[in-house]
Specification:
This protein is an alpha/beta fold and 532 residues long. It is 48% helix and 11% strand. It has 23 helices and 13 strands. The longest helix has 22 residues. The chain is globular. The structure holds glucose-6-phosphate (G6Q). The site of glucose-6-phosphate (G6Q) has 15 residues, from loops.
């Protein structure tokens, strides 16, 4: 039997598995299925697994040569085969003195040079030695970028609010919808505003449109000569940056071996570094680097990203789960689900394997989430009583940055209670004992047996946030290896960049002949007519 057949057989067997009974029968269940690493505890005992399941999943990982795949990534091999690129976001946070080679060249000197450039610049903004064109201090920073050039800084700036310099106001403009830009500009004054144009390619329609609008706004107020003091760029494309009119002295570079959604660790993190300061930014890199070491060296049984990846692939591939929820019990982590949505769904939303063959098994799940306890008052209903199997990751810091009264105890009580309720459910007998009438019992019954991981972290700090993001990056990597897909390209996203470019001239030029299907033609015609 192949490992896939073994796992299928095991999944069938697990149809009769009951989590509540498993806990009742084995008081060492938590002991067996949890890992502690630094300030993190991963409790994965409330999953639809037994020891044999984990053994088989590990065997699967071994058959896929996960260990050597991990080494290949860290060693800078060109594992992004469709784009012939290395995948080295880990080099951006390499805090060891070890060199990392791409095409025979150690990339670390350049990585450190950019970090140093970011350090100088962010310090100058923070301490007021960098002034605007009229010699005023910068008070507002607008990061213009989208997707991977936006979501990381947005999420982390929010997550690390307690570490942000309160006199600096951070804004993030991503959408080409003029509202996004208009609302940011409304809050800013040209003399005290700095724009960071963040785009790996420096050709993305949304970002370049927003950047041009920002430039027009600024030069209208202060003149073209003011641009140099109010615009910097983060990009891999020096030629386009120059063309836009930004001094390359004020360009922060990165490289094509950093994927957009993995780019927060380097120059794309400039806005974040300005907000939290260099030392905190380095702490974030340290945390991620520590997680990298854990991922590289821990055996699979004690390896957090490996365990999360194996479980994720188990539910998607064998247990029929199509979606998956990430539920942080920390208001500062409110953008984490959106960030992970891109990380997971853009990386593993693939239906072609590494050999170019159509895949016959399910891959990347649909990820969603909201902070608790808010989500409890809306979509948790479906997780508790709906017809879908939705594995959950609960994430909670044990200490809050805002320990007011008993708020945090209430928050923590909720997260623990939710995982318990999903696991145990509530049966007829319990409902009867509570005095629930016979007619209502079916409605108030909870089947339980609904899986969750709980990740407890001492506190959300730059260090632990870095480790947490790296944990999920590596989890996604593990799943990609198990499914034999390239987690590092994104042709679906690139398609979107092309399509609008074709439609745009058709909307503005009403004489252009339309050659689409009847629906697309009609939509274009309607818009042309109404926008006269
Ligand atoms: C990330 C994606 C995508 C990308 C944006 C922005 O992995 O490829 O989200 O980051 O499309 O691209 P630019 O940085 O080139 O503007």
């Amino acid at each position: 039997m192949t490992i896939y057949q073994d796992l299928q057989k095991k999944a069938k067997e697990m149809q009769g598995f009951n989590l509540r009974e498993a806990f009742e029968k084995d008081n060492k269940r938590f002991q067996k299925f949890h890992v502690e690493w630094q300030d993190f505890l991963l409790d994965y005992s409330k999953n639809l697994i037994d020891e044999k399941t984990m053994k088989l999943l590990e065997k699967w990982a071994n058959e896929c040569q996960l260990s050597s795949a991990i080494q290949s990534m860290f060693n800078g091999e060109k594992i992004n085969t469709t784009e012939n690129r290395a995948v080295l976001h880990t080099a951006l946070r390499n805090r060891s003195s070890n060199p990392i080679f791409v095409d025979g060249k150690d990339v670390m000197p350049d990585v450190l040079k950019v970090l140093d450039h970011m350090h100088q610049f962010s310090d100058a903004i923070r301490n007021g030695t960098w002034l605007g064109a009229t010699n005023k201090r910068i008070t507002d920073i607008i990061n213009i970028g989208i997707g991977g050039s936006d979501l990381g800084p947005v999420m982390a700036t929010k997550a690390l609010t307690p570490y942000c310099e309160p006199s600096l106001h951070m804004h993030f403009v991503s959408n080409v919808d003029g509202t996004d830009m208009a609302e940011a500009l409304r809050q800013c004054h040209p003399e005290t505003t700095l724009f960071i144009i963040s785009s790996k390619t420096f050709t993305t329609l949304e970002t370049m449109t927003n950047a041009k609008t920002a430039r027009a706004w600024l030069s209208k107020a202060l003149g073209e000569n003011a641009i140099a003091k109010h615009f910097v760029a983060v990009s891999t494309n020096e030629k386009e940056v120059k063309k836009f009119g930004i001094d390359t002295e004020n360009m922060f570079v990165f490289w094509n071996w950093v994927g957009g959604r993995y780019s927060i660790w380097g120059a794309i993190g400039l806005s974040l570094m300005i907000a939290i300061g260099y030392d905190n930014f380095i702490q974030m890199l340290e945390g991620a680097h520590a997680m990298d070491q854990h991922f590289k060296t821990a055996d699979f049984k004690n390896n957090m990203p490996v365990i999360l990846g194996l479980l994720g692939a188990w539910y998607t591939g064998y247990m029929g789960a199509e979606s998956y929820a990430v539920l942080p019990y920390d208001q500062y982590l409110s953008r984490l689900p959106a960030y992970l949505q891109q990380l997971d769904m853009e990386s593993n939303g693939k239906s072609i394997d590494k050999n170019g063959k159509i895949i016959s098994y399910p891959t990347g799940p649909i990820l969603f989430g909201e902070p608790g306890t808010n989500g409890q008052h809306s979509f948790y209903q479906l997780i508790h009583q709906g017809t879908h199997l939705i594995p959950v990751d609960f994430i909670a810091p044990i200490h809050s940055h805002n320990e007011i009264g008993n708020h945090h105890d209430i928050l923590l009580a909720n997260v623990v209670a939710q995982s318990e309720a999903l696991m145990r459910g509530k049966n007829k007998k319990e409902l009867k004992d509570e005095g629930i009438s016979k007619e209502l019992i079916p409605f108030k019954t909870f089947t339980g047996n609904r899986p969750s991981n709980t990740i407890l972290i001492d506190k959300i700090t730059p260090y632990t946030l870095g480790a947490l993001i790296a944990l999920y990056e590596h989890k996604v990597f593990v799943m990609g290896i198990l499914w034999n897909i390239n987690s590092f390209d994104q042709f679906g996203v690139e398609l979107g960049k092309q399509l609008a470019k074709n439609i745009l001239p058709e909307l503005t030029d009403k004489h252009k002949k339309l050659n689409h299907d009847s629906s697309t033609n009609a939509l274009v015609e309607k818009i042309r007519k109404m926008r006269k």
